[in-house]
């Protein structure tokens, strides 16, 4: 298969094995997932000293905790004595005490004490610490990376932090209103590709294409390892909810920032923030966490209504599409077809999928 388009030969889509082969998923699981920025949680989950929550990346059990100095840290969830898990779920702790032998750690991960350890010749507790994990606070959204030498998020996703602040001026005040977990019977890349193009929108998403956005203004362009979606909102008389265009400069805009490989910030007209977080289970299954946020997490009829509308229309419509694609990828009759890459970009072009599939190849083939 040709990987690069020429004037005579359009670039073709990935071979089906990239979406169906468990060995390729294993390579991604052990490589890509472990060396990229993955969503861990929100700062509102660790507001107070000692607050913690557990999460996982690439099969690793991890936890995030706020220290006595106010710093938010992440660690592998494993005691350095004999490997028992330190914490479960979420909660608050004054000290981190291993349930197995009561080895006790400070909130910054350093060993404080352990039963009878002073009797061990040469024992130096200052040399023992829970294994840290890189974590970044991105406007209150916490991302972790198992690669200790990972490039900072601002280099991976240039300009995104500033753009988000301009589209959601109150982003620092937001807390989750709801997180909804939606399973999809498809490979995570099928779901991500579907999210990352609007070539299918007019045919499959009538509510989104007529009541939220103007499809003719829709475009998606790479921005580092980010895919930036931009469009105008629908005419006000066709909007499915009320917005105040005078509230700020981007009140009438829709935009989305897909952060490779598994997270997206999506801002609806009216500066309403929604997030997507893909959690790959195996080659054929993914869970998509969709989050909705309000100032201080206060209930909002508008946001609740928009979330229900989204699940009943776009979400339900997309599940049918991606699960059909996954079945089709397993057909003997499928041959990789040409991507529709319009040099002028725009809503009816798959240039964003072209970028995605290059990243996908790099993740598997190097």
Describe the structure.
The protein is globular. It has 366 residues and is an alpha+beta fold. The chain folds into 2 domains: 108 residues, Rieske [2Fe-2S] iron-sulphur domain (Rieske Iron-sulfur Protein), CATH 2.102.10.10; 198 residues, Naphthalene 1,2-dioxygenase Alpha Subunit, Chain A, domain 1, CATH 3.90.380.10. The two termini are 16 Å apart.
The portion of residues assigned to helices is 10-25%
Question: Which strand order do you get reading across the main beta sheet?
Answer: 1-10-9-4-3-2-5
Content of β-strand: 25-35%
For this structure, the quaternary state is single chain
**What number of domains?**
2
Overall SS class? alpha+beta
The CATH class assignment of the largest domain is Alpha Beta
Give the uncertain stretches in residue-range form.
none
Largest sheet: 7 strands, antiparallel
Distance between the termini: 16 Å
Query: What Rg, in angstroms, do the CA atoms define?
Result: 23 Å
Number of strands: 17
